[in-house]
């Protein structure tokens, strides 16, 4: 009986810590030209947990940009257009979402100054269930 209890507690412990295991890799922001008012950032998010989660919003220091929106690109006839994901970005369990040009990406709106190659910005990802994650994101020429 004691062995069953220990096994049950171990299972609950593992389940609790795999509930919202989010890993973020390959973060980068695209360098902009001097007068740019918007910028873009890309990253890969892997939900290693057993439950779905949602990237609800992203924040950045007010010294970089006024706001950040999660966008996707949709085809409207023969025209590509961006659309904000106002409900956030769904992160299915045991799945990876890769942000890239021409697809899902982060839009930095109302830049305070250009994003210069070699600089670094800090983005904070806010999830529905997982803890927020602050990332140091290098600015690169793409």
Automatic annotation (TrEMBL):
<protein>
    <submittedName>
        <fullName>Copper chaperone PCu(A)C</fullName>
    </submittedName>
</protein>
<dbReference type="InterPro" id="IPR007410">
    <property type="entry name" value="LpqE-like"/>
</dbReference>
<dbReference type="InterPro" id="IPR036182">
    <property type="entry name" value="PCuAC_sf"/>
</dbReference>
<keyword id="KW-0732">Signal</keyword>
<feature type="signal peptide">
    <location>
        <begin position="1"/>
        <end position="20"/>
    </location>
</feature>
<dbReference type="InterPro" id="IPR058248">
    <property type="entry name" value="Lxx211020-like"/>
</dbReference>
<dbReference type="Pfam" id="PF04314">
    <property type="entry name" value="PCuAC"/>
</dbReference>
